[in-house]
Amino acid sequence: MPRREMSDRQEKMYQYIVSFIKERGISPSIRDIQRDLDISSTSVVSYNLEVLEKLGKIVRNDKISRGISIPDLSPALLSQNFGRVPLLGTITAGSPLPDPEEVNLDQAEQVTVPANIVPPNRLNGVYALRVRGQSMIDALIDDGDYVLLRFQETAENGQMVAARLIDENAVTLKKFYRENGRIRLQPANATMQPIYTSPENVQIQGRVIGVLRSLL
Amino acid sequence: MPRREMSDRQEKMYQYIVSFIKERGISPSIRDIQRDLDISSTSVVSYNLEVLEKLGKIVRNDKISRGISIPDLSPALLSQNFGRVPLLGTITAGSPLPDPEEVNLDQAEQVTVPANIVPPNRLNGVYALRVRGQSMIDALIDDGDYVLLRFQETAENGQMVAARLIDENAVTLKKFYRENGRIRLQPANATMQPIYTSPENVQIQGRVIGVLRSLL
DNA sequence: ATAGCTTCCGAACACTTGTTTTGTCAAGTA
DNA sequence: TACTTGACAAAACAAGTGTTCGGAAGCTAT
Q1: Is A174 considered catalytic here?
Q2: Residue B131: what are its φ and ψ, rounded to 5°?
Q3: Which residues form the domain of A138?
Q4: Which pLDDT does position A96 carry in this prediction?
């Protein structure tokens, strides 16, 4: 049996509910619908809401006020197909990076991260940085890209990290290598030289786990 | 004057409201909060909600039932900080690509696109493809990346496009050049040779406008 | 036409829900 | 001490809100 279509009235009610929720963030009451759609009785609204629920267009939370919600608009979606991480600044070879723990996460600009790139449930401790410069061009990271980093203080050889050089008070995006007692920070750009320094002078601020690039 | 912090109780209430809305799609009532958080009186809830609203953590719709909404969770966000495009398949040098117009867009897998990469209002006619192979490695596109393409049938010299070779019935990701009467499709990989063919044999299926990469 | 169905109407009902009022109590503060 | 303020408690109040129910109107099929 094919799914029945919505009647004219049901279509209008559905549209009304969707825009009401989009604009105000809460469900309309039955009397809201009745009034704004010039329906003669609340019982008519009730009746058609029942139909809409059977059609799967809306979900009703039994007998409670303003209990209409729309599955396709569910805030649950907000944590399903993507997540959001704070954009903590720009990373350039040589310029200092705001400490992720000191930034007010509430007021930081947010970057949406598709679930295909990093699943939302693995987004804890992840932040984004804008890339300035081409020091990682051979690692397919270009000026203007956004890199996603997971905060961690250690790294394996070969991992791409944001590393802080304490003495120089600089933060840079490099590949990390531990070599008999010292650290090598290797740019992915054939024209640039690696940095050698002592383990004490290096503080890892996160590891790159994703890249986003706009070519518009 | 620095913004005050939430008290312990307010923190709990806020968390409760957020998860309630996420799970059920509607706001909790004051008595829901009172009961589930073991608060002695509705007036206490009311009092603290007032504080939360002053802090900007929640929005209250005056005097109506279940009128609490959370700005950060607003369904309006669903069309603000990102958009979604269909994932139409995989592009490999040599394998055919499903025609974007023939695919059922409703049931195609969706990819979330951050507003930073492509603004949602410019997402019309945009689709995503998974990249197979390393023919564009010098253009910073690697195996496994997602590329975002805007559907268009013409291209300027140097633009990166998905091009269909009609005779060969193959689709490939290349840089496009028009050279005195013929077309050159240039891979961005020093080890690979360009393809030369006639304009009649080339059908452009879209231009690359973004790249998403996961390094997890 | 008649039965059966869907859709609608109007009003009344009962529960849900936000608000208000009156106090209490502890921590500051002059 | 006396006064203010923040946070809480208990109960009562007044709307807001979903539901129900008898009946009417329109429609379809027999």
Answers
A1: yes
A2: -100, 130
A3: 78-212
A4: 58
